[in-house]
Amino acid sequence: MSQITHHIPESMLIAYAAGSLPRPFALAVAAHISLCDDCRVGLGAHEAVGGTLLNEQPVQMVSDSMKEALFAQLDDTPLPEPDPAFERSGVFPGPVMQALNGKPPRWKSVGGGVRQTLLHWGDDGSTRLLYIPPGKAVPDHGHNGIELTLVLQGAFSDETGRFGVGDIEVADDTLEHTPVAEPGAPCICLAATDAPLRFNSLIPRLLQPLLRI
Amino acid sequence: MPQPPEKTYSDQTVLMLAVRDRRDRAAFGLLFDYFAPRLKGVAMRSGLGSGAAEDVAQEVMLTVWRKAEKFDPHRAQVSAWIFQIARNRRIDLVRKENRPIPEEIKMVDRVEDDANQILAMDQEATQLKLALNRLKPDQRALVEKAYLGELSHKEISDQTGLALGTVKSRIRLGLERLRHELKGMR
Fold it and tell me: Which domain of life does this protein belong to (chain A) (predicted)?
């Protein structure tokens, strides 16, 4: 784990701490933090800032009846079920297993040997798992928004550098890139976008509505 | 080495440990009196009416009571822990789907609390408060908006650079210790 060199940008870590990150990115951040002590510590630091600001907020008086109602609930309150904690399974960190509902991914071919599993698709963007055979490329694409790619197995390289397990790439709308999987193990990634991808060649572009990417 | 007495901890930490270890209602009442009006204030900032904001404050404080045993003073100050609970509550209100939850680090089996580590967290909070109070009013306003969920991540990276630079050296203070702590838990 010590080899992680590409981390969450500070602004995203703050937005995650504040709860204002779009859901697709929040999943990628939660998955990266599950693999990266540095970013876990950074998140803790930002939450400490949030706590300090909470301490200094102007007060809004609360009613006595609310306090009484709350204290009435403290009696013998059965503890709610603990958060459904999903454990890591193989290369998939807990938050990815949570998005998979604890089941193994169901891969669908998207051409060129590349496979994907869609985890979430909505107005706020999408998240999916990508399976890229060694030496193969994800179709050349740009972005209308930002795309986060977290490596879970293997490694890929593109115009900006090399990304191994735990590394997260942040690609904005200025980057046209072609990620290529390294020889060896197939590369498995979590990809999160806040807008549809923009493919440069016709066929993937025609398939895009079908593939929902 | 003898541990320093508990009363050298901050008031908030002492009260929260009483809730955690003894289910102390009087201590919880004092935490409520301090945090509930502030939680209500934060909720109203985000646009909720007084009644709805009060409901949020109530739910957050109820979670503080119910999950008190999960409070770990070696890893977070009371205020930072309650900030997290309030943040999670806000996300759950607006999203139908489950909020992604990072894997938890296993709790260390401690025979007793490590007073030095807890004091270090309290001191970090003091340092952070000083750093935030040194910001110019407009910087301070931006930082508050960023941490209270009123800016997008893009707005944070575009607008708060200078303000965050000022806070950042303090943010990193004391974190090396925490990092060692985490490594020891793997």
Answer: Bacteria
DSSP bridge pairs for A190:
A129, A150
In CATH terms, the fold of domain B7-97 is Rna Polymerase Sigma Factor; Chain: A (1.10.1740)
Q: pLDDT tens across A47-91, in order? A: 998 999 999 999 999 999 999 999 998 865 556 656 667 889 999
Domain that holds residue A200: 1-213
Dihedral sign, CA of A47, A50, A56, A59?
negative
* Closest C-alpha among A193, A208, A212, A211 to residue A23: A193
Q: Identify the CATH number of the domain in which residue A5 sits.
A: 2.60.120.10
Task: Give me the phi and psi of B185, to 5 degrees please.
Answer: -95, -15
Average pLDDT of each block of 10 consecutive residues along chain B (186 residues)? 64 95 95 98 92 95 93 93 94 78 72 82 84 83 89 81 58 51 49
Amino acid at A144: N
| Domain coordinates in residue numbering, chain B | 7-97, 115-186
Q: Does A23 touch chain B (CB under 8 A)?
A: yes
Show contacts of B3-7: CB within 8 Å, 24+ apart.
Answer: B3/B112, B3/B113, B3/B115, B4/B115, B4/B116, B4/B119, B6/B115
**pLDDT score of A164 more than 80:** yes
Q: Do B25 and A74 touch (CB under 8 A)?
A: yes
Query: Does residue A7 sit at the B interface (CB-CB below 8 Å)?
Result: no
pLDDT in the model for residue A57: 94
Average pLDDT, chain A: 86
B97 neighbourhood in chain A, CB within 8 Å: 23, 120
Instruction: Report the share of chain A in percent with pLDDT over 90.
Output: 58
CATH number for domain B115-186, candidates 3.40.50, 3.40.630, 1.10.357, 1.10.10? 1.10.10
